[in-house]
Amino acid sequence: MTDLLSADELGFLDPSKLNYWVGSTPPLPGFVSSLDVLDSNTDFRVDPDLHGSFDGVFFVEHDLGQVKQWRLVLDELLHLTNGTGTLVIRYYPYRYVNSHELLTAIDAWTGGRAEVLFSRRWADDRSKVIGLRLSAEPRRRSLDSLTFGLVADGRFPERITRFVDSVMLMDGIDEVDYEVLVCGPAGAVDHIDQKLTRTRLVEQSSRFADLGWITNKKNRLVAAAAGDTVVLAHDRYSFTPGFLTNLKEFGPDFDVLVPAQRTVEGFRYPARVASTDLWNIASVGELQPGDYTPSMYVNGGIMIASTEVLRATRFNELLFWAEAEDVELTRRLANAGVVARFSESVVVLTDLTRSDQVSVFQRFPYSPEYLTPDLLGPKYLVGTTLSFTSASRAEWLADHGVTLPQAWHAQPDGLHWSATRSPEISVRPRVPEGVADRRWSLTLGVRGGRHDVALTEAWVNGRRAPLVGTSSRGQVTDLTFAIPDDLANDSDTFNVQLTSADPAGFVLATLRLDLDLERASFPLEVSLSETFTQPSELVGWSHAEAWGRWSVGERASVAVPAPPIAPDHDVLVTAEIQPHLPAGTGEQRVVVNAAGVPLEIWTFTEAHLQKRTLTVPASLVTRGWLEIGFEIAWPSAPLDETGSGDHRRLGIALHSLTAREIRQARA
Amino acid sequence: MKPSGRRALLVVEPRFAQEHVGVRRVIVDYWERLLARGFEVELAVVHQGVLALVDAEAAARTRIDISRRSSGMTSPAWSTATARAGHAHPTLAPSLAAEQPLDLSTALVGWVRAADFDVSLLSNPWLCDQLMPSERFTHGVVYDLVPNLLAAQAMDFGTPNWPVTGFAHSHHRGYEFFLDHVDTILCISTSTRDDFLRYYEPDEGTAVVVDVPFDLDRFLADYRDVETVDAPGGVAGAARILLVNVLDPRKNIEQVTRALSDLSRTRPLSIEIVGNSRLSPGHAPEDYFERLSENGAAVTWYRGASDELLVALYRSCDVLLFPSLYEGLGLPILEAQSFGLPAISGSGSSLGQINFNPSLFVEPTDAKDVARGVTAFLDKTAPIVSGPELVAANRAFLEAHHTFEASLPD
Asked: Is residue A613 classed as helix, strand or coil in its secondary structure?
């Protein structure tokens, strides 16, 4: 209907006002115009210096109802106003937005302090334009004072040390007022220099310690926090040196922020996660960067939030560990008008402490529709070869249980992959019933280039998958990788990340996932020489040489697939080792463990090649893997000792391992 | 007067003569006023980032085309009598297209610079959003800020206002170009100048003046031979009410229809409508005509009427009803008053400044108040200025608001 605003009502267009126009066609002076708020590549974030700067924000040129991530965009629009001023939004209440959702979100965010300035609708057009006058209290958001809160249980003091160290090593940490709070049992931070590191214990409740009362711990951390912004983390997390720099670039004006998560090897850990429905957590999924679905939730492992927000909406202490307190909190935050924002640039590091941490999340490709994690979603038919040519569209692959990143585009000859652009492929196989002890192999068809140089490693769910075979068919070379058994038995999804040492990369033509490789059998013969190709996982070793490998640093390990072991049997491991004896000690000492459990201390006083044996109980051959670890007491570099020679910090030269099944002595 | 050798350049859109009736009339006015001041007038369009000169023959033909339009329909496109008789209405002859003015982009002869001319006038702001060369111009014309205010949600005429954002931005960019490149900004009314200065801040080197681009004497001279026309008939003793360009949401067709339909219950009305339809898709003019005539009024619609027919109706009707919601100027009121014909209008925007019958001001959003104004006029219950007295008031106003000449170089 006809509406001509009066002079008083037109105050929002007064030239003295500063307005923000979403788009490229501002109609009058005094408008800052930009499309940043619609840019999924920057997580819908404008220059943070603009937050809270505007008397009016106009979303008229575009239709918010057609923006799938409208909830994130709306949050950014509201933060541009900082709660006061005029907000004008055009939307067609269809597809992604309905009026109730939109206006409830605004009403909640402003605490009910929004009034209608005008509401326009037309007989011939289903768009609506609403003009709202906001008068909410300005929000206090700052990164000048930060609290890093760690949830601990006292079992892993080294993780607390790592967390605190990573805070101390952040670029720019000395420029902010920060503190580290650790919620755990008494004495949990006694091993930390608390004064130097500004670390303080927030003692956990003595109640329900066995249940993991993480809601109570997090509330205690928030209550004790002195910072305007609090980072709440479980003890598997630590920070990159650039964390604070990137957080400042994102800006302080957020309520809750979900950072991107990576393992130390760079593997992407699920952060943009969603449940089946708002309250249905039967299945969970992971979305592509920039995507959104209403059932997303804040992954409880780590969150960055306004302390004020988490004091107003506390964790529900009726819930314990593994009861999805994060999903429940997210829903109550939403009721308070708070939506979690996401950042690809703010990154934290995480351990993979459980094999299903990654695989439980169904990976989604970007889709114009809202996505719903569903156990019954499309799955890959084991043993079929999928082609990555331009004829295989991402949607078709998704229907066959294979998800590609949003930005991926196939070329006629396949997926072009390089070291600088190495997105992940996610495969969700249909797992046959009745296969209790699964073994998977992943075969990738690589076209062109020197595959052995170009494609150096494959990682599956954050674990390195050893190369176990190569073969050729025409111009395509098939590389077969063994998926570690612990992942194979627990995983619903395999997220495959390939690394390339060749800047020119390679072309990935095909993918096939097979079940049940040839089974390993005793005796296991493990050589570390450069000609060896048996499935294994090597950590802490230098490059392969004709005879084997040198350990470098304090820790090294060898893990190999192992066949089933009879209950009354053990495994006898024989190692062929040549130690490096440091000049200062004249001997080398090695703590040998299996699956992380120390079993022997080997002391070497002679530098020649020698054999040592180790009896590994069957109980330590877990999930089908035999993993032998070596903790080197005195690794040292000959160069440091003599002024010449090898610069590596050598410990032992491992030539081979042999493992055979033996009857337990007591039996 | 022979050309003195002084040159003036009118920068226009290539198809301006076919589009934007208001712009066409403004260009005619400035063209003739420049000729009257002894300038040789040439046309240019913006073409690939330069000012491209229109060849003289095409310019001359264009001047003839736009100066006095005798072409167009003189018979009704729709009338109550024809509709009731069940006869088919004539359609606007497609052959009119053959008589339409040139597309000037087909008649370019080279490029020029504004600095080569004594006067260089940008005939509208939005053409500056088309790779306009960064030159200095003497004049630029501001019509109104209606698209800008619509896009900024300051107003709503009952049809979706958001699609206008692109056009509004072109206006905005044009105004910013004016501020940086134009010596004198000509606003076609005081209210337009007020709107412009509310949002744009010129520096000291730029003058923003009101110049009403309507030459009453030339207008009267051009049409002095036009006779009155009889009412189309059908309703004896009916008051003749003229509606100009009313088939447009901004011109308030909805409230006009309600007001006149109600009023025709109590008195005979002959409603004569001039102007093409600018209704939203899905709205047919016939629907409004049916409603207008449902209580006995005789309705006649001259679509694509010639200027001569329009003038004849100014001279023949009793009153112009023009309750537009917002105007940059309201040229039909000035034209009607040139023949002594009073107008009923709102008092907002420019209308209150150019309608010299304040007793005939109505609230345009209220159909009952529109009907009240018409009744007051017909019943002569309000003091009304008309005839020579109104012509004199109109002339005095226009003389007071002609500043273009003063801004021209000697």
From this structure: strand
